[in-house]
């Protein structure tokens, strides 16, 4: 036996063998154990991936399903709160005869074709249904009198009567100019005046310094026709419209709006009270409460305003006659 072998301590050898056996046992035990479970972090990460994929899949919408699905109708907006219209002070309890109130409340909005002029006290308009070649209405804007009877106002208030006479003169002058414009080429008197004026213009060409428009030159002209005298101003004894108004109308009664006896007689009988008649006698039967003759005036005979021929109830004959009179009248 080798000496080195003899020198080995049996206890040391045995201890080494035991250590080797222990290492082998640990190796065998490690191989026999089941695979270790994943850690908490790995498990959480895997779960997040699956959730993300699931969410992505759910987020994808089917185009056909989206198209065919009924979309909920949006809720309608709440109804707007209705605002109460501002009442027109010139209307009287929604009276259907208060058609003139719209001109009084906002004259600036009236179309220029209907409006002649207005100020703080009056509105002057063309009558919507003119009964003559020119026919205007003067509307006082004073609310305190707009619903009163015209005969009572004009008969009891001198200041109002004076103010109406003043505005009536302005309106009459305006309508007279319109009559002159319309009949300038048909009126003999107007044609004579126009010819004389043309001669003055020719003289101005041959005589330097001569002014055909000067007062001296105008005095040389014939007067022409007095169209203002062809216009009458007044009120109806029983007005058809609620708001106080005054008629300014030419005398010819040439209008397709004159359609019956009432239309004609309302301007050609005592039913039409001329402004020059005021103040009326206190016993005048046309004043409300004094008499009841106004209906009889409208139903009475129709008399030609020019020749005074009585046509009684023959309105068609009167209309034909008025056309003849008009052709003569406009040529004066």
UniProtKB/TrEMBL annotation:
Residues 1-91 are annotated as: Disordered. It is found in: Nucleus. It holds the Pfam family HIT. Transmembrane segments: none annotated. Residues 268-327 form the Aprataxin C2HE/C2H2/C2HC zinc finger domain. SUPFAM superfamilies: HIT-like. Keywords: DNA-binding, Metal-binding, Nucleus, Zinc. GO terms for molecular function: DNA 5'-adenosine monophosphate hydrolase activity; double-stranded RNA binding; metal ion binding; mismatched DNA binding; single-strand break-containing DNA binding; single-stranded DNA binding. This is Uncharacterized protein. GO terms for cellular component: nucleus. The keyword Nucleus applies. Residues 30-57 have a biased composition (Low complexity). Residues 1-10 have a biased composition (Polar residues). One of its GO terms (biological process) is single strand break repair. It comes from the Eukaryota.
